[in-house]
Amino acid sequence: MKAIAIREHGGPEVVKLVELPDPTPGPGQVVLVVKAAALNHLDIWVRKGWQGLKLAFPHVLGSDVAGVVEAVGPGVEGVKAGDAVVVNPSLGCGHCERCLAGHENLCRRFAILGEHVSGGMAEKFLLPARNVLPKPENLSFVEAAAVPLTFMTAWHALVARAQVRLGETVLVHAAGSGVGVAAVQIAKLHGARVIATAGSDEKLRRAKELGADEVVNYETQDFVQEVRRLTDRRGVEVVFEHVGKKTWEKSILSAGIGGRIVTVGATTGYDPLTDLRHVFFRQLSILGSTMGTAAELVQVLRFVGEGKLRPVVDRTLALADAVKGQALLSERAQFGKIVLEP
Predict the structure, then answer these.
(1) Average pLDDT score over the chain
(2) Are residues 156 and 125 in the same domain?
(3) Rounded mean pLDDT of 220-226?
(4) 180-194 pLDDT, tens per residue?
(5) Which of 83, 137, 173, 247 is the most exposed, fewest CB within 10 Å of its CB?
(6) What's the structural domain count of the chain?
(7) Residue 125 to residue 246: CA distance in whole angstroms
(8) DSSP letters of 77-129?
(9) Which of 172, 161, 253 is nearest to 210 (CA)?
(10) Prediction pTM value
(11) Listed residue (151, 87, 135) closest to 114, CA to CA
(12) Which of the 8 DSSP states describes residue 319?
């Protein structure tokens, strides 16, 4: 089978279209024929590598996958050949207290498909049977692949961690990104007022179409001043933060007294300054959040199936164009998700 893999960490040149053996399912496993695999900034970080990340090379990239079950291994129940499915990219051990309680993203052995273990940016994908869920019938495979990682991340951050409530105001950064697109919709689904930021007027226009109530161009406007203007100087109840160093200090200033800042990533850097005076005096809560649970993905897929949440696909590319897709992500040249079709 053909796959997008790396054999070492580095720049775009290490990403190769390679030929790998077709997988065979073992006990509890399934093999998918991949119909679509979406890109994430995570693919770029994995390609570059970081201290402590240990991979078995060749490592296949790709966390977001939709496809058709080709074969099932011994002991698999509830999934059969021919099923159209979407992949849950979260991997817990399945045996510890946290996994058994349904909090697999808190498992000490937690892993993400495509990050810690090989993913599904390939013609075929071997994975645990428990990690496949029925594809909503109203979605194409391309649309389905645009859902899991970003919508799980935004749902867990806003609903489970920040506990967004009806009538609150939520500041969503980089609303044109995959996770930003999800966060705008999830905040609106829960009755919040959304202030969305983006780096171009076209992205802001599209964010409004997704439901954002107010928009701010962070390249031409000071988003702290705009947040204060739009909230009568109170600040927002929730900041959805995934940009990192470039926005962090101003995100703290944008939060109102008793506000919650939930962080799910650090695209522009992980070591910003934090003025603790603002944190303790204004009684802010800083909440970390990673991925989500299988139950949360089931909820997301139900709302997607009902049309209350929708994936946004910027464009599709051939599997061999993965490097081009990564370049587009790095340049912030997309709105929503870029999806590869083997």
Answers:
(1) 97
(2) no
(3) 97
(4) 999 999 999 999 999
(5) 137
(6) 2
(7) 36
(8) -S--TT-EEEE--EE--SSSHHHHTT-GGG-TT-EEBTTTB--S-BSEEEEEG
(9) 172
(10) 0.96
(11) 87
(12) G
